[in-house]
């Protein structure tokens, strides 16, 4: 259809094959996109006032969700991003745990919450379950994550060698620009 409207534009081989996605990736993308839609519905409602997820803690949850979706999209597009000691699945599980925490705080902490807030929490649990499945598929566990974080923290908190004292600078009394009076 696009090729007919724009004959110079060729879309060869740029179709995403969803059958090649792992179950974890399908959960992350599916539940994440549904949560994104749900985030614009009324999470709070009282008489004439209503608010969606994008207020208070919901902003943090929404931004975390956007990072997770972008991260999973980059993984599916085979874009390699250096993460230091963390593997891609470890980063996804950390981000999804934060998403689950922030949506729980949003659902419980707000007065006059609606069913959409709890649906959002269940969808964030789906994102976390997908990240967990991806981590297991990569052969990693929470103990691997803990060891990676501990080793990274241990290497960054090592005491630095004391710096050599700098030699004091000496200036001649009449050779500076402050001594030129006109």
Please provide a written account of the structure.
The chain is globular. The chain has a domain at 21-145. Helix 2 (23-38) runs antiparallel to helix 3 and helix 4 packs antiparallel against helix 5 (115-137). It is mainly α and 182 residues long. It has six helices and two strands; from the N terminus they run ααββαααα. Helices cover 55% and strands 3% of the residues. It has a two-stranded antiparallel sheet. Strand 1 and strand 2 form a beta hairpin. The protein has helices spanning 2-5, 23-38, 57-76, 88-109, 115-137, 142-156, and strands spanning 44-46, 49-51.
Shape: globular
Q: What's the end-to-end separation, in Å?
A: 80 Å
Strand arrangement in the largest pleated sheet: 1-2
Radius of gyration: 26 Å
Biggest sheet, in brief? 2 strands, antiparallel
Give the strand content.
under 5%
How many separate helices? 6
- The H-and-E topology, N to C, reads as HHEEHHHH
Coarse structural class: mainly alpha
| Number of beta strands | 2
Helix content range: 40-55%
- Return the average pLDDT rounded to an integer: 83
Low-confidence stretches: 6-11
